Amino acid sequence: MKKFVVMGALAATLSLSLVPGAFAEGDSATIDQYSQGLGADSVSQVSSVSELTDVDPNQWAFQALKSLVERYGCIEGYPSKKYLGNRPLSRYEFAAGLNSCLDKIGEQIAAATADKATKDDLAAVQRLQEEFKVELATLRGRVDSLEAKTKELEARQFSTTTKLDGSVVMAVQGGSAGSNVVTNNNGVVPGSAANTTFLGRTTLNLRASFTGKDELLIRLRGVTGQDISGTFGGISNGLGTAFYGGGGNGAFDGSSSTSGALGATNTPVATNGNSTVSFDKIRYTTNLFGDNFRIFVGPRIDLFEIIDTNSFANNEEVDFSNGFMINNPLITAIFAGPGAGGDWKISDQFSLRAVYIAGDGGRSFGQGFGGLTGSNSIGSAELEFRPSQSSKIKLQYSGYTQQTGVSPATAGVPTKTDVFGVNAEWAITPSVGIFGRYGTGTAKTNTILGDQNLNTWQVGFAFPDLFAPGNTLGIAAGQPGRVTSGPGTPNGTELNYELYYNFKLNDRITLTPDIQLISQPNNVAGNGNITVGTLRAVFNF
User: Fold this and answer.
1) Do 325 and 458 form a contact (C-beta atoms < 8 A)?
2) Which end of the chain has fewer CB atoms within 10 angstroms, the N or the C?
3) Taking 50 as the threshold, does the pLDDT of residue 410 lie above it?
4) What is the pLDDT of residues 324-336, one digit of tens each?
5) Does 403 share its domain with 536?
6) 190: in domain
7) In sequence order, which residues have a C-beta less than 8 Å from that of residue 221 and are 6 or more positions away?
8) What is the residue range of 11's domain?
9) What does the pLDDT average to over 11-39?
10) Same structural domain, 241 and 92
11) Whole-model pTM?
12) Within this chain, do residues 170 and 87 fall inside the same structural domain, yes or no?
């Protein structure tokens, strides 16, 4: 009788799985597919339990598997010769497997294999079913209750195709200058004029997929609080010593700015804790012509999401806080707006990307300004070469037309700029990385003032997992975009230095102390050094 315990248990469970109403209409076809090896993973018959490489003779179910394989021939394994005994089993797969066993037993009975399955054995199975009738009914009720709760949860969920994630950045920043500072508008500000401020940025991302390989991203964002650039205007090319903060011209990340041509005004961020929430990114991404070519299109896309990315310096939430350190300011001079782009993985070593953004693409008035082809637009391309799995070199080009930007322009006459850049990174070891960016270009103002030559550079080191897994130390130095010759050439050279250490408190919370030093701010030789300290906390959900 003992040799049929397993067969009896299987038959008992079958009565649970095949009770009236347990399967929906059309489920039999799915079971047939699994029976024929057409399920999620194809399986094949094994003739000995030793063929299953992941079955240990010491496991509690070994004898049961051995009996089913060698005596009844109704156990199948995956192509990798594994049984995957701990893998969750769907009811479809269970019914298909049990049906296969019963078919084998039926064949043995038909072949008069009385020593393996007799009428007495079948009677014993029937007795087992009768003995467990009450327990099976209880289990059936519990399964029905779980199915009802699952349907209720599915009906009440936000969306079956959309996921919500987000982050909250909270930061305290303070600093001062060694002497009075001449700002970018030639105002003079006392070195001790800056307050210690609280900054906050909240981001909500709605991600929807319609094919499984595409994504519609809708981002809501609000910023509150000004960084020290609100006092000493223009440092770091106006990108902010805390890119997640704001100044007199709006948020540095562009989420609350309404800057533009022909009389448009800028909206400064609130300083009382309120945040003006905007849809600051809406873009659709999908594969085209295969998995190696991907396109981006939307009424507001971020250039630096596609061009000039870097593994060690690209995310103001978890690495460098300074907006200048996270991108090349000449290559990404116009970083957001209506546009489109593509990313082509040519091979394992080469990728090619191209993006066009019209910063004022929605403007319908103003000759030469706005629209998809007017001023405040940029076209960028990037060829990436991967010499190894741990290194990347990106050759870049950006051509843009803008009324204002890194280089000064005569009012009403757009500046046309061509820039070439290099972005490189190398993880020397898993614990040491080096990175750098360089850009050089020429701005043509179409006036008698002549052309302006521009350049920028930065270099830095990162030390992942320093002192503890998940923590990172980063240090970088660089020169924001500067006119090196031509009209508007400054008498000084601004240099930025930044050091941070990112503590990963857990998978959702990080804490980052950060210190910055800015020498000759605004490229004015007599300006005193500005020292900035920031304590940043980031919550991801």
Assistant:
1) yes
2) N
3) no
4) 999 999 999 988 9
5) yes
6) no
7) 201, 202, 203, 204, 253, 255, 277, 278, 280, 281
8) 2-156
9) 44
10) no
11) 0.70
12) no
